[in-house]
Amino acid sequence: MRRYALRCNCTECLGTDQCVTDGACIASTSVIEGQERHVRTCITRDQLQPPGQPFYCLSAEGLLNTHCCYTDYCNSVNLKVPSVTKPGDGLGPGAKWGPVELVAVIAGPVFLLCLLLIVGVFLFHHHHQRVYSHRQRLGVEDPSCDHLYLAKDKTLQDLIFDLSTSGSGSGLPLFVQRTVARTIVLQEVIGKGRFGEVWRGKWRGGDVAVKIFSSREERSWFREAEIYQTIMLRHENILGFIAADNKDNGTWTQLWLVSDYHEHGSLFDYLNRYSVTIEGMIKLALSAASGLGHLHMEILGTQGKPGIAHRDLKSKNILVKKNGTCAIADLGLAVRHESATDTIDIAPNQRVGTKRYMAPEVLDETINMKHFDSFKCADIYALGLVYWEIARRCNAGVIHEEYQLPYYDLVPSDPSIEEMRKVVCEQKLRPNVPNWWQSYEALRVMGKIMRECWYANGAARLTALRIKKTLSQLSVQEDVKM
């Protein structure tokens, strides 16, 4: 177990006014939307970059005054936002300059420019070593800290691109998240679940999705926000996280999780409304595999990413973007693998996955909970069921079937674990793959992938990367424009 020695005051911590860290205590006063905001919190050692002059500890004249310190509760200081130096003050035009001042005025900016260039080259090189795919847009934090002033012409996409923490892709700084969340105007309910409601909201003219958890689901809210802010998680096929906030309206506490808004809704909704072409089927299937592959992948290094397994993959937890590709959502049940200690970080909540999509080893309780690959294999089984839902709605040759959930013909609408176990484990049944799919190469490949996702032995199933490669080859054959 890692030990943290430093205790700090915290204005951003849920249910407590202090936090512990292995890095530094930070106090900052900033001007956001013309308002003075005071923040006291902890930052971890890996956020103290670059060494000697961490970005998080820099101030910006007239906008931000930041103080980092390294003793218990040292961030109790009260900081003022420094005023901008006026002409005639200090070294302004009206002052008499001696040789020392002249050297300082000339050499200072030159030194600062050189320092910024060196930092910029270092960040550029470091960033490109870490990015494994040209598709990812991971924002590099601006060393000047000017970004902490939320300019009125900034859109959410601009903010996320500019402010992804130190290029790590783990999301916006905490105080920016709170500012964004508290200026969202809710518009309409677009979904309900066991956790609460999903709303469409507006922020600066753009649409966002706001998942509002009931107060009894605090653990789920905290867990999902925690997973979404995992370093290097941002990916075009994983739902874009924007902010998490707890809002006290005087009667009860609302727990908000703000993310990108996708007007098509879930894959379940989309397939109920529309059939898909062969090209549409391949785009949905390939993008879902890409998102799951990135989730499962471990990226090594100091700014690396742990492997993550979803544990509740289904068509209702996958969103369809405007361009017809998928974004995997709802990470509240996800588990992370810490390879350094070979431990699995499992959420401390009582929820289980969706019974209809549970793998055989989950249903009969033979899954090895100490082996991370077991969770990835269970995700692959569920992905195979999602592919079956998509392929059924493919209108190849003007033939397509009505939408149905997996095992619709074998179990009731809300099956018990026992009913699912009997069908999946004892009778070893799987959804029907029609013979006519053999007449179309794309459907034949999809059918083959499904069967290889449904093996009773989890270790024999395909990996997300293997599925992605197979579907990438198919997309080239079918001339699909992703």
UniProtKB/TrEMBL annotation:
**Chief location:** membrane
Which GO cellular component does the record give, naming just one?
receptor complex
Q: Which CDD domains does the record cross-reference, listed alphabetically?
A: STKc_TGFbR1_ACVR1b_ACVR1c, TFP_LU_ECD_ALK4
Protein's UniProt keywords contain Electron transport: no
Q: Which segments constitute the GS domain?
A: 154-183
Catalysed conversion reaction: L-threonyl-[receptor-protein] + ATP = O-phospho-L-threonyl-[receptor-protein] + ADP + H(+); L-seryl-[receptor-protein] + ATP = O-phospho-L-seryl-[receptor-protein] + ADP + H(+)
Q: What keywords appear on the UniProt entry?
A: ATP-binding, Kinase, Magnesium, Manganese, Membrane, Metal-binding, Nucleotide-binding, Receptor, Serine/threonine-protein kinase, Signal, Transferase, Transmembrane, Transmembrane helix
Please give the Pfam families that the UniProt record associates with this protein: Activin_recp (PF01064), PK_Tyr_Ser-Thr (PF07714), TGF_beta_GS (PF08515)
PANTHER family this protein is in? ACTIVIN RECEPTOR TYPE-1B, TRANSFORMING GROWTH FACTOR-BETA RECEPTOR TYPE I AND II
Q: Which family does it belong to?
A: Belongs to the protein kinase superfamily. TKL Ser/Thr protein kinase family. TGFB receptor subfamily.
Report what the protein is called. receptor protein serine/threonine kinase
Gene from which this protein is expressed: ACVR1B
